[in-house]
Amino acid sequence: MNELVSGTGEAANLLGIAVAVYVVAVVIAKVLYRTRGVRFRWIYHGFAAALGLLAGALFALPPGDARSAAVDHLLGATLLLGSFPLATLVNHFLWTRSTAGKPVARAPRLLSDTTTLVFFGAMLLIVLQFVYGQEVPGLLAGSGVAAIVLGLAMQDLLSNTIAGLALFIEKPFKTGDWLKIGDDEAKVVEVTWRSVRLITDDDVFLDVPNSKVVQESIVNFHQPDPKHSVKVEIGLHYDVPPVRAISLLREAALAAPHACKDPLPSVWLKSLGDSAVIYEIEVWIEDHAHFKQVTSDVRTNCWYAARRAGMEIPYPQLTVHRGRTLDTSAVARAAANAALAGHPVFGFLSQDQIGQIVARSPAVLFAPSERLTLQGEPGGSMFVLTAGRVEVVLEKEGTCRTMAALGPGACVGEMSVLTGAPRTATVVAQTEVEAIEIGKPAFAELIQGNPEVVNRLSALLAERQLANEQASGAADSATSIEQVRRGILGRIRSFFQLTD
Q1: Closest of 337, 342, 496 to residue 419, by C-alpha
Q2: Are residues 339 and 479 in the same domain?
Q3: Is 403 helix (H, G, I), strand (E, B) or coil?
Q4: pLDDT(270) > 90
Q5: Is 316 part of a structural domain of the chain?
Q6: Nearest by Cα to 117 from 78, 152, 155, 158
Q7: Per-residue pLDDT, 2
Q8: Higher pLDDT residue, 344 or 480?
Q9: What is the pLDDT of residue 106?
C-alpha cells in the first residue's frame, strides 16, 4: 500500500513539474513571438513536452536504473527536438531584420532548411556520442557499405542541394522575378534546397530541380531593371515605302496599353522576305506579366492602322506577273508637269512636250539621308521634287556648307541632264522624298530634229548660269552671255550627238 501511494505521488510530481516546465517554455515562445517576431513551428510543442518530462524525471523520480534510463531517453529526445527551435532562433537573428516585431526580410527557404539540417545532424552526433555512448568515428567506419549505398541514393539530392547553394550565393534571381529557363517563361514563387518553384502566366506550376536550373541559360526579365523591351514582327507589302511604314507602325505601337512612353517604341526594317517586307517593332514594358497582352495589342493596333492607311499585310502566296506594270505615280507626274510648266528653263515647252518628257521618266523614292546627287560625279539626269524636302550642300576646300533647302516643285540637275556636266553640289534628302527622275533618253526625242528647242534651251541655261556666277562673285566681267550660250550649245550638241 505504501509503495502504491509512493508511486502515485512520484507520478503526480513528475506530471506537475512537466506541465509547469511546458507552460513556461510555451510562454517564453509567445514572448519571443510578440517582442521579436520569432515564429516557432509545431515541433516546438514536442520539444517543450520533452523538456518538461526530463525536468520531472530529474526531480521527481528516485535514483536508480529506471530513472537513469528515462533521463537518457528524455535527454536524447529533448536535444534532438531542441535542434529545431535553436535553428529557428539562429535563422531569425542572423538573417531576418524586424521592425516593431514584424519581420522585414526573411531568410531564404534554402538557407533556413540547410541551417536546420546542420543543427539536427550535429545534435544527432552529440546524442549518439555523449548520451548513448556510441563512438561516432567507429560507427561511421562500421557503416561504410551503408554510407556508399546512401550516397548513391542521395546523389540527385546532393547535386540539387549544392546547386541550390550556388544559386543562393550568386543570386541570379529572387522571388517575384520573371525568368526564361530553357523554353519556359515563368515567375519565381520559391527557392528551396531542392528546386526552384515557378508559375507561368497560365497559372501552371513548375518545379525545376536546382541542378537543371544551373545547367540552363537563365534570362531574368527583372534584372538589372524590370523595364525591358519585347519585339514583334509585322510584314507589309513591297509597294509600301519603308519610311511611311516605320512611321505608321511606331504610332500604332505607342498606342498599346502597358507599353512604356519612355523610351518610345522603335521600328526597324529587319529583312526583305519572300512575300513581305518584315519590320521589327520594339516596345518597352514595366512588368513581364504583361508580355502576351502587350504583343497582342501591338499586333492588333498595327493591323488596324495598316488597313486604314491602305497598306496591305500580305500572306505567303505565289503571284504571276504579266508584262504590264501598274503605274501608281499619277499624282507625282501631275505635280512634275506643273513644276516644269513654271520652270524658268523648261517653261517655254508646250504641255504636250512636257507631258511626253514626264511620261518617259520614272517616279523614284529616297529615304531620309539618302543622296540624290553627289558633287563631282558625272551627271545625266535631273530630279523634279514632288514630295518631301532636300538640302543642297556645297563642298569647297574641305568645308561643307548648306546652300539651300528645297521642297515640292523644285528641280535639281538641269545642267547635267542637258549637257552631261558633273554635279555641282550634293543633294541630300531630309525626309522621304518622291521625285520624277528625267534622264537623257526622255529629252533625246524632243531635242533631235528640233533645233529651235536646242537654241532656246542653250540661251535660257546661259542666262541662268551667268546670273548664278554673278551672284556668287565667280563671273568674269569680260565673259558675254553669247559666249556662255555658245559654250552650252556646243555641250548639248555633243552630249546628244547632234549634227549642225
Answers
A1: 496
A2: yes
A3: strand
A4: yes
A5: no
A6: 158
A7: 46
A8: 344
A9: 55
- Over its C-alpha atoms, the chain yields an Rg (Å, rounded) of 45
DSSP conformation class of 500: -
With cell 541559360, the residue in question is 217
CA–CA separation, 294 and 258 (whole Å)? 6
Using DSSP's 3-state secondary structure scheme, residue 460 falls into: helix
Residue 103 is inside which H or E element, if any? strand 102-105
* Alpha carbon 329 to its chain's center: 39
Last residue of a domain, one of 220, 243, 259: 220
Rounded CA separation 290/256 (Å)? 11
Amino acid of residue 158: L
Beta bridge partners of 187: 178, 199
Measured distance CA(69)–CA(366) in Å, rounded: 99
Place of cell 499586333: 299
The answer to whether the peptide bond before residue 344 is cis (omega within 30 degrees of 0) is no
Residue bearing cell 539536427? 120
DSSP for 276-319? SEEEEEEEEES-GGGHHHHHHHHHHHHHHHHHHTT-----S---
Q: Cα–Cα distance between 37 and 57 in angstroms, integer?
A: 33
For the chain, give the mean pLDDT. 80
Q: 206, 186 in Cβ contact below 8 A? A: yes
Owner of C-alpha cell 514572448 = 31
Residue that has been written with the C-alpha cell 512634275 in this structure: 336
Domain endpoint, select from 185, 220, 255: 220
336 with 462, same domain: the answer is yes
> Which residues in 316-379 belong to E strands, given as ranges?
363-366, 371-373
pLDDT at 5 over 50: no
Dist CA 426 CA 60 (whole Å): 109
User: Is residue 410 within 8 Å of residue 392, measured between CB atoms?
Assistant: no
Q: How far is CA 477 from CA 147, 401, 464, 467, 473, in A?
A: 111, 26, 16, 12, 10
Q: What are phi and psi of 347, to 5 degrees?
A: -65, -20
Q: How confident is the model at residue 309 (pLDDT cuts 50, 70, 90)?
A: confident
- In the chain, the number of structural domains is 4
Please state, in angstroms and rounded to a whole number, the distance separating the CA atoms of residues 186 and 176.
Answer: 10
CB-count burial class (<10 Å; 0-12, 13-18, 19+) for 199? middle
Q: How far is CA 152 from CA 145, 147, 157, 159, in A?
A: 11, 9, 10, 11
Cell of 141: 567506419
**DSSP conformational letter for 448:** T
Measured between alpha carbons, how far apart are the two ends of the chain, in Å? Answer: 157
**No. of H helices and E strands in the chain?**
16, 18
